């Protein structure tokens, strides 16, 4: 009996998951495990051109061999609990925000804000883990990285994450911040050594088993909510939003939270990855934290 991957693919249902478009992604087959049907990933030494052609024909995609090659890839996932636990508001004088203004980290109407007036910022930390099988590295070569004199480091990606405050019907109510980042290993799992550091024009990236933390007190780690009215909102973070760097799974790149703002305090709750909001999340307030507005 032929036990090659090709035979098994012919016998089982096949699908693609985690790709940037319908023509690429992780190949999964539906298999019976102890009486339950589950999806399993296909990636083995027996995978080759013949297997790729069979899958392409089954899915009606033509032949796109590159889409099905079994190569390791990074997989970035944000820690939603860190967002929940670190969120607060700060009223900050415009005169202290000139560096952030130069990097377009404020709402577009901030140009009319007097230097002695305040902007209201929704601040939070983001901790982004690489749970994949290879390091996450910028798509741009090092000689194209952009030096930011104000922050004194190079930014290796124009858009690494986006931050948006949305109404409950999905309309953006606070200007989304497109964050260009310097990528480095802030911390790693036990036994794994840091490889990437932004200082001194160092190599940038996130090692497998490590994470990059952008603290809430770093410039631009916020959404400008100066003109937002009190109410209930959805806060959304998207990693690698333009899929500029290949990952093994793009479906876990979206984090959503419920956000309640009463004009003086903010509550962030129900943060989770996958981009959906359950009915339970809609009606409950797990981990509710009161945050008084701070002033600088």
Which key terms come to mind for this protein?
296 residues, mainly beta, Mac-2 Binding Protein, 2 domains, 5-stranded antiparallel sheet, 4-stranded antiparallel sheet, 12% helix, disordered C terminus
Describe the structure in your own words:
The protein has 296 residues and is mainly beta. It has two domains: 5-68, SRCR-like domain (Mac-2 Binding Protein), CATH 3.10.250; 76-295, no CATH class. It has five helices and 18 strands. It has helices at residues 5-11, 49-59, 80-86, 98-102, 279-283, and strands at 14-17, 26-33, 36-41, 76-78, 88-93, 118-123, 126-130, 146-148, 153-155, 157-166, 172-181, 187-188, 210-214, 222-224, 231-239, 254-261, 266-273, 294-295. Strands 11-10-15-16-17 form a five-stranded antiparallel sheet, covered by helices on one side. A hairpin with a 2-residue loop joins β2 (26-33) and β3 (36-41). α1 (5-11) packs parallel to α2. The chain is globular, with a radius of gyration of 22 Å. Residues 6-11, 65-70 and 277-296 have low confidence and may be disordered.
How many individual domains?
Answer: 2
Q: Specify the structural class.
A: mainly beta
Distance separating the two termini? 73 Å
* Contiguous uncertain segments of 5+ residues: 6-11, 65-70, 277-296
Strand order of the largest sheet: 11-10-15-16-17
Average of the residue pLDDT scores: 79
Element order, helices and strands? HEEEHEHEHEEEEEEEEEEEEHE
Our estimate of the beta-strand percent is 25-35%
Q: How would a crystallographer describe the biggest sheet?
A: 5 strands, antiparallel
Number of helices: 5
Helix content: 10-25%
The total count of strands amounts to 18
Radius of gyration: 22 Å
